[in-house]
């Protein structure tokens, strides 16, 4: 009995390590390629997994080739704006849907549900036309606006507020607190967990987004990192070390964020899936 | 009595503030989601172009679709994508969830590591695999080292599509694994123990206990992944290039929407007609998967 248990455990770890190599290995290979100098053969067979003389030379070359730090700053601006607008906007709207009584509440809820079901990929051309009519194409504001208050985030916040016991807010009301005071002092502090999930997915969504910025941005000086990388790949496809360094710059901040805030990432998947 | 008058007082106290709370959200989804959705439906029946308003042309766009080879290529590839990706994304993450479910030392590290591809941008993931699958890349080096010889993953039309599917599955594994982990936590242990006592082996228990218990989650994963797969854009765009691989044979429907509708000469009306096809198939896929689930339960 104990022997089969032990055997099973060994088998488990072997499988875990195999999957680990498959999921994390490609990132490490990219990192390794980005650290290999110009004289080192990156095409050798059998491959050499570790750079013989690790160098940051390729990272310097990326910033000589494209304004990669400007692009990173643009991505940071877009992602930060997306976090702020999504947290504020979806907390406000979620509270209105969950707690406030008014004519038209059901219609408002339905509008958010419908908006959540619309496949974004199908409306990008119309979104682009709208953006052009507003004179906001080719701007970072234009990149942020369509997703700046996500319908799913609003519905997530609504559910979080609905799960709070009503009595606390009622007590505050009896004590003379008005609606803004109840919202800011009682309701919002109680849903911090969900708000953190909204914030993290808003950051990741904006930082990683590709299709929409690709359509709305045309001026290379305003690119975000993902569009800049696509441009780098399209123009310097043969230079693998350069592209590798670029991808490492783009992915490192998010992996760091994920390492620090894992449990919110996992919670977000659970909460999002139930709604999806 | 007291409660009624209190509720009334609440209502009297705030005539406008509910709308102030909801207004920013409603404005954004109204202007940037619902309005573009309706205008896509309307534009599909016009010959609108990027700089020309266009006129109502009835079903002309849809009639043109029937004779457009590129449209059929896009529909074929997006459909193949669903057929190739969905079974893998329904089954593999479930097996992975079973692998990381048991709390053995170091398991939280493995769970997080398996989730890393989800966190990375699709552009990063696409470019990593373009390099891995390159004619002179790591995978071909390994294949050559073991004597198989080099394979043109990114130059053959079908291998390209297959490689893109593999990348989609690779990136999605961790995401659906987490969904399955939550579902598996709700499967009562006693069921497994009872089956084990009855002499059922691991595979037998998987089929008779685990699968029925997570059936509705499998339907959910099926619905989510099939909708996402049909709308595939980035993976194929990055791996096959903007023009969709050799002779455009790897173009997907959303790539076609992007290519047709953008630029100064973009045919907005025609691209909208393709978008309408995307809407219809997406809704149909969702209903199909969820209905299959309901029938499975009955």
TrEMBL record, chain B:
<protein>
    <submittedName>
        <fullName>ABC transporter permease</fullName>
    </submittedName>
</protein>
<dbReference type="GO" id="GO:0055085">
    <property type="term" value="P:transmembrane transport"/>
</dbReference>
<feature type="transmembrane region" description="Helical">
    <location>
        <begin position="158"/>
        <end position="185"/>
    </location>
</feature>
<feature type="transmembrane region" description="Helical">
    <location>
        <begin position="268"/>
        <end position="290"/>
    </location>
</feature>
<keyword id="KW-0472">Membrane</keyword>
<keyword id="KW-0813">Transport</keyword>
<keyword id="KW-1133">Transmembrane helix</keyword>
<dbReference type="InterPro" id="IPR000515">
    <property type="entry name" value="MetI-like"/>
</dbReference>
<feature type="transmembrane region" description="Helical">
    <location>
        <begin position="80"/>
        <end position="100"/>
    </location>
</feature>
<feature type="domain" description="ABC transmembrane type-1">
    <location>
        <begin position="75"/>
        <end position="289"/>
    </location>
</feature>
<dbReference type="InterPro" id="IPR035906">
    <property type="entry name" value="MetI-like_sf"/>
</dbReference>
<feature type="transmembrane region" description="Helical">
    <location>
        <begin position="112"/>
        <end position="132"/>
    </location>
</feature>
<dbReference type="InterPro" id="IPR051393">
    <property type="entry name" value="ABC_transporter_permease"/>
</dbReference>
<feature type="transmembrane region" description="Helical">
    <location>
        <begin position="20"/>
        <end position="38"/>
    </location>
</feature>
<dbReference type="GO" id="GO:0005886">
    <property type="term" value="C:plasma membrane"/>
</dbReference>
<feature type="transmembrane region" description="Helical">
    <location>
        <begin position="206"/>
        <end position="230"/>
    </location>
</feature>
<keyword id="KW-0812">Transmembrane</keyword>
<comment type="similarity">
    <text>Belongs to the binding-protein-dependent transport system permease family.</text>
</comment>
<keyword id="KW-1003">Cell membrane</keyword>
<dbReference type="Pfam" id="PF00528">
    <property type="entry name" value="BPD_transp_1"/>
</dbReference>
